[in-house]
TrEMBL record:
This is Proline--tRNA ligase. It catalyses: tRNA(Pro) + L-proline + ATP = L-prolyl-tRNA(Pro) + AMP + diphosphate. Signal peptide: none annotated. GO terms for molecular function: proline-tRNA ligase activity. Homodimer. Keywords: Aminoacyl-tRNA synthetase, ATP-binding, Cytoplasm, Ligase, Nucleotide-binding, Protein biosynthesis. It comes from Hymenobacter artigasi.
């Protein structure tokens, strides 16, 4: 194995970048600001995708696909949305290359192949989708329209970090149309709940559900709901958003329907999405200085079996291991048998620890003769000898225990790093000395929010949905405040 990872304490950012690369999740590409998601990383994304897709379909949604390119005139139809994304847009202006007469063997853009109208590479798909919905919606019978797409988007980022912020990333985006505002708000809240359930049940990641302030709201939305998670360095990460769009896009693209009385009305819209940023959250919330710690529900390999043998014994040992392997597979557990004879057991232990495999079995002939199996769990590094007769059931239960423990550990971390503060001085001190979520009063104005952001680099992460309101005094201006907000520095 290569030299040890940097520790989280030494340099959290370097630890994260090195871990993502060394564990085989992703790497930087030849395209500046873009990443290559490697097979092991993509396998985790596939598990996320599969689970979320099932949850979307259970709530009545269907998948479709819309073009990557958006004509500029469509993109600018909803002014707030266009303005919000304008600085991040990649734009296609020409449709052909030609050989360069001044540089043999090289190409240049054909000056005669300029597009009549520029095409925006989608940073988000509201414009192209709502222009399509105009043709799909005529009557109340066509509603609700519940569509999701799995796609890539491009937002031209200059300062990038693998998974957390890249110029191109993968995501899903739901776009729905409804007959009433109440239905659209219910959809927005429902999808927020779906995201929260996925984060907590599958990613083992506790989240705060809340609503964004106008300053942090999605461009073109009436309300943005979000789930916020806390990473091990005390920074927050927005793990998913769900937007109530009101009738903004319906009016911009003239999406109307005839109601039951035959009166024409504009539909009410929502959009919601999560991205490969969740991969970054998974790494930063759970992993340690030895490598990844993956919750079993999302681990590509849940159990690795490493044979312990002397020269000439491997084939006979593998025959004795096979019933254990098959028994685990029959339980729906993904198993890797690492029978490479080119590496020593110690190397294999370190490699699979780095990759975050939840359970490791080291099996030798002597163990089998004694009716025992050596088992190590990745989350606590606890080593135990378990009876061979019950090994399949024991490992199955252990995976459940590990999933629960990883969640509880993250929940306890959040609890010990969430602080109620009442003064601005204490707020600033805590951000530097004990970073995490800070619950504080502010007067709700954009001016105060901007001042806090400028002076401390902390933002209002959300106004919590499921916590009691408590009147107080703004820590900055002394004006009345109806409730505390969650503040943090964030990714």
């Amino acid at each position: 194995m290569s030299k040890k990872l940097p520790t989280r304490q030494e340099d959290y950012s370097l630890w994260y970048n090195e871990l993502v690369k060394r564990a085989g999740l992703a790497e930087n590409s030849a395209v500046r600001g873009c990443m290559v998601i490697k097979p092991y990383g993509y396998a985790i994304w596939e598990k996320m995708q599969r689970q979320l897709d099932d949850m979307f379909k259970r709530t009545g949604h269907e998948n479709a696909y819309f073009p990557l390119f958006v004509p500029k005139s469509l993109f600018e139809a909803e002014e707030k949305n266009a303005e919000g994304f304008a600085k991040e847009c990649a734009v296609v202006t020409h449709y052909r290359l030609q050989t360069d007469p001044d540089r043999p063997g090289k190409l240049r853009v054909d000056p005669n192949a300029k597009l009549e109208e520029e095409l925006v590479v989608r940073p988000t798909s509201e414009a192209i989708i709502w222009s399509t919905y105009k043709n799909w919606v005529q009557s109340y019978r066509d509603l609700p329209l519940l569509i999701n797409q799995w796609a890539n988007v491009v937002r031209w980022e200059m300062r990038t970090r693998l998974f957390l912020r890249t110029a191109e990333f993968l995501w899903q985006e739901g776009h729905t149309a409804h007959a009433t505002a109440e239905e659209a708000v219910a959809e927005t809240r429902q999808m927020l709940d779906v995201y929260a359930e996925f984060a907590e049940e599958h990613m083992a990641l506790p989240v705060v559900k809340g609503v964004k302030t106008p300053n942090e709201r999605f461009a073109g939305a009436e309300d943005t709901y979000c789930i916020e998670a806390l990473m091990q360095d005390g920074k927050a990460l927005q793990a998913g958003t769900s937007h109530f769009l009101g009738q903004n896009f319906a009016k911009a693209f003239d999406v109307q329907f005839a109601n039951k009385e035959g009166v024409r009305e504009y539909v009410w819209g929502t959009s919601w999405g999560v991205s490969t940023r969740l991969m970054g959250a998974l790494v930063m919330a759970h992993s340690d200085d030895e490598g990844l710690v993956l919750p079993p529900k999302l681990a590509p390999i849940q159990v690795v079996i490493i044979p312990i043998y002397k020269t000439g014994e491997l084939d006979a040992l593998l025959e004795r291991i096979k019933p254990i392997q098959m028994g685990l597979i029959a339980r729906g557990i993904s198993v890797k048998l690492d029978a490479r004879d080119t590496e020593r057991p110690g190397f294999k232990f370190a490699e699979w620890e780095l990759k975050g495999v939840p359970v490791r079995l080291a099996i030798g002939a002597r163990d089998l003769d004694a009716g025992m199996v050596e088992v190590v769990r990745r989350d606590t590094k606890e080593k135990m000898s378990l009876p061979l007769a019950d090994i399949v059931a024991s490992v199955d239960q252990l995976l459940t225990d590990i999933q629960t423990n990883i969640y509880e550990r993250a929940k306890n971390f959040r609890a010990t790093h969430t602080t109620r503060v009442d003064s601005y001085d204490e707020f600033k001190r805590m951000l530097d000395e004990e970073p995490g979520f800070l619950l504080a009063h502010y007067d709700g104005t954009s001016e105060t929010e901007e001042r806090i952001k400028e002076e401390t680099k902390a933002t209002v992460r959300c106004l919590p949905l499921n916590e009691a309101d408590e009147e107080g005094i703004c820590m900055v201006t002394g004006k009345p405040s109806p409730r505390r907000a969650y503040f943090a520095r964030a990714y």
